[in-house]
Amino acid sequence: MLQQGTSIETAIMPFKLQQVIEVIMEKKQFGAEDAMHYLYTSNCYQLLLREETKLWYMSALWIFDLLEEEKNARGIDNRKLLLFFTFCLEKYKTFSNLSAEEALLVFRKNGVFDYLRDGFEALHTQGEGYIVHEIDLFIKARMT
Predict the structure, then answer these.
(1) Contact 60, 17 (CB under 8 A)
(2) What angle do CA 127, 128, 133 make, to 5 degrees?
C-alpha cells in the first residue's frame, strides 16, 4: 500500500532507474557509479521525472536507447572524449603532484568531466599548459 501523497509513478521510479542503470552497466561496461553519472547527467533523466512523458512505463532497454541517442547527438565521439579525459587527468595529476586515484577523486568531486565535456570543442584545440590552467581554475572556483 502506498503512503498517502505518494503516486504510483513516484513509487515506481527507483525501480525503473535501477533497471536502466543495470542496462547501462551491461551495455557500456560501466561500474555502478559511472552508470549512475551517465544517466543522472542526461536530459533523458529529466524526461523520466516529468509526469506528462510517462517514460517510466517504457522498458529499461527503450530508455537506454533514448539515452544513447541523446549522448550521441552531442556530436562528440566517445573515443575522442575518453582520450581527452585521460589526457587531462594525467596532465593535471602531474601538475598537482597527485596520484591517479587522488586526481580522479578531485575530478569527480568537482564535476571536471562535465566541464571538459561541455567545453570539449574549445578546450581540445588548446595547448597542454592552457588546459591544465583552466582545469585548475575551474576546480579552485568550485572549492570556494
Answers:
(1) no
(2) 105
Cell numbers standing for residue 31? 561500474
Residue type, 102: E
Helical ranges in the chain per DSSP H: 8-28, 32-40, 43-49, 60-73, 78-96, 100-110, 112-118, 120-123, 128-143
What pLDDT, in 10s, does the model give residues 63-110?
999 998 888 776 566 778 888 999 999 999 999 999 999 999 999 999
| Residues contacting 113, CB < 8 A, separation 6+ | 85, 107
Say how far apart CA 22 and CA 75 lie, in whole Å.
25
Distance CA 61, CA 84 (A): 29
pTM for the whole thing?
Answer: 0.52
